[in-house]
Amino acid sequence: MLLIICLTILIRPTTNGNCAEPDVKEQISISLILDRIINVNVGATSVGIAVNIGAGAKTFIAVNSPPKIITFDSDLKLISSQEQFDDVLSINDFAILGGFTLILSDLFSPSFSRTDSRLRLLSPILIENGIQRFQPVSLTTSNDGDIYFANASDNEIWKVDRNGNSSRHSKLNGEIWLTGCRIEYVQSRNFIAILTEENLYFINSYGNIVRHMTHKHSVVNPSDIVVNGSEVWIGGESVVCFDVDKSSIVFSLSSEYLIELGISNISALAVNGDSIFYMLSEHGDMLAKAIIVRETTGK
């Protein structure tokens, strides 16, 4: 049984003393309006949220063990809970490709599993070219139909193009430890954002680290990132928003405030369009839906 708490709370940004304000006359102020919190009880082994941007704007939550996908409609009403996937032993990450296709990552399989928006299994994507040991820890997709994944066995980012051809994308050479990381594609820059325990990194379209943009974040136990335009949102015991264009934190939500809301220790984040924002709690019990409000200040 789902418990829905509907409320409107305006969450103003808190000041982060470690971050300098950008030297510009006109700035964008970000706030969150908390729309509702839902008791979903999907379990502590939930691995992420994804939103289908196609018709109906379904929201999916993936659970590792037993592997299942839980589906909600645009109003966060439960649609289904699919628990049987042939040949899928676990789900350690997932993403949506092209607005409709779900890509599932399974550490025990030499391929990516695929389903349509109705969770019907499609033919898998085999990873064969050049990689010695397929060990994906996180994956993301681009608007061009490419799949990128962080491979723990060689600490590199790999790319699978729309034709199914795979190749090494990054040139990290051991500089970033990818085990436990989360990656997201930044469409506005054609970058890959990499979240680790201490830092937020970016690699460009040539696979090189963009060193001047490396940011030492303040989020304890970071668990997930999501990209919304130039914004990279990081979730963990707190929530912060890093603006790629300004190279600075533009919004932060403290752990104390999250505890007050009952959604402490974020395990997964998602966005729908430009303004709908989702946060899933660490134990997979509470799902919060918020509205992102941006206001221009200054001249």
Description:
The chain is mainly beta. It has a domain at 1-41 and 217-299. It contains 1 helix and 25 strands. It has one helix at 255-261; strands at 3-11, 26-39, 46-51, 59-63, 68-72, 78-82, 93-97, 101-105, 111-115, 121-126, 136-141, 147-151, 156-160, 166-168, 182-186, 191-195, 199-203, 215-216, 224-228, 231-235, 239-243, 248-253, 266-272, 276-281, 286-298. The chain has a 5-stranded antiparallel β-sheet with strand order 1-2-25-24-23, with no helix packed on it. Strands 3-4-5-6 form a 4-stranded antiparallel β-sheet, with no helix packed on it. Strands 7-8-9-10 form a 4-stranded antiparallel β-sheet, with no helix packed on it. A hairpin with a 5-residue loop joins β9 (111-115) and β10. The longest helix is centred in the C-terminal third of the chain and has 7 residues, at 255-261. Mean pLDDT is 85; it is low at 1-8 and 15-22.
Q: How are the SSEs ordered, and which strands pair?
A:
Blueprint: E1 3-11, E2 26-39, E3 46-51, E4 59-63, E5 68-72, E6 78-82, E7 93-97, E8 101-105, E9 111-115, E10 121-126, E11 136-141, E12 147-151, E13 156-160, E14 166-168, E15 182-186, E16 191-195, E17 199-203, E18 215-216, E19 224-228, E20 231-235, E21 239-243, E22 248-253, H1 255-261, E23 266-272, E24 276-281, E25 286-298
Antiparallel strand pairs: 1-2, 2-25, 3-4, 4-5, 5-6, 7-8, 8-9, 9-10, 11-12, 12-13, 13-14, 15-16, 16-17, 17-18, 19-20, 20-21, 21-22, 23-24, 24-25
